[in-house]
Amino acid sequence: MFVDKAEISVKAGKGGNGSVSFHREKYISAGGPDGGDGGRGGSIFLSVDTNISTLMDFRYKRKYVAENGCDGMGKNKTGKDAKDITVRVPNGTIVRDRETNAIIVDMTGDMTHRLAKGGSGGWGNTHFATATRQAPRFAKAGLPGEELDVILELKLLADVGLVGYPNVGKSTLLSVVSKAHPKIADYHFTTLFPNLGVVYVSEGNSFIMADIPGIIEGASEGAGLGHDFLRHIDRCRLLVHVVDISGFEGRDPIEDFKTINEELRKYNPELLERPQLVAANKSDIAQDGELIAKFTDYVKGQGHSVFLISAATNTGIKELINKTAQELSKLPPVVHYESEYIPKQRLKGSPDDLVIENYDDVWTIEGEWIERLMQNVNFSDYESRMFFDRILRSNGVFKRLEELGIKDGDTVSIYNMEFDFEG
Q1: Which of 13, 252, 332, 384 is most exposed, with minimal Cβ within 10 Å?
Q2: Hey, where are the domains in the chain?
Q3: Is residue 311 within 8 Å of residue 169, measured between CB atoms?
Q4: Is the CATH number 3.90.550.10 carried by domain 351-420?
Q5: Which CATH class is domain 160-328?
Q6: In CATH, what class is 1-154?
Q7: How far apart are CA 237 and CA 60, in angstroms?
Q8: Are 275 and 302 in contact (CB under 8 A)?
Q9: Dihedral sign, CA of 31, 33, 35, 37?
Q10: What confidence tens digit (pLDDT) does each residue in 195-224 have?
């Protein structure tokens, strides 16, 4: 089974907490603080692996979580950094933010990208020692790692895309001009996933050709297989439109040509601006010369070159390939998608964003700013509590409470901590 789109969630590790520790040694009465810093949380990286051709693995594993950093220890020992996680993806995978659909990165070539950064470790109490605060009994908590939900979308890296109705001979053509071995059978939708082949024209001159599964009317709206695979044409610099000219199935090649181009236009109008060569296939069994002439005149009238070929007998193949190589030499490289993503800022909150609510003589305070502040306070230590009090006063939290009508003796509740208010 070919899988070319998947959704995954990634979560980098939290940084380790800083340590509160003091040097203890015989005959040394005041060793001072020696709490070490926390270790860095693990990050999550994406890496291109050319041995992978589908996103199949992501159907079975959709969540990737890195380990947290280790906490700091006494004797100024820094906690161990967590291991990073590397997720392997196929060449040509576009990574989008699921929330905004913005492109985060286009994974092409020999590329590695950090998708989610691990949190930094918190400082130990060693960092907070000053001339007036010689025994700090608090340390900093580690920061959380980044979390992200993303969409992985595989867009094949091919110079040339073969497009056309099912069973017109695209797979046969690819097998003839390259060493690819696609499944070939005499029924529609034989090809259920894109096939790639390298076409060698001459020494130092080659290109990659992709056989895109048959597109039918309504493909741009999800009919048939086309909806899932039209995206693989996006990167192609040139299109080879294969049309069954034999009339064996009673189809009108002009109508088929029009229909496929209309589906391309509906999917992405820019596709019709790409150079397009038309391969009128199965010419060896065509019996209606008038139909061939009519089709050829129509296509040339649309500004395209027409090649009468037979993939089964190799008729006209060399001329088609030489013209394809000639056209490619004039075109820019395969499309590489630029990032549109604006990374989310780590939410630190603000004292102004705090939610204060009153229930009789109890006042509750909630918000990310104060929650993060509490992580860095040791409430069993008097000096640390005074530090907490000063931060609340200097940031106007007590003033807001007074403006809202708090009275001395009322209870202030902040998550799992309560104290009596004193103005």
Answers
A1: 332
A2: 1-154, 160-328, 351-420
A3: yes
A4: no
A5: alpha beta
A6: mainly beta
A7: 34
A8: no
A9: negative
A10: 888 899 988 789 999 888 766 555 455 444
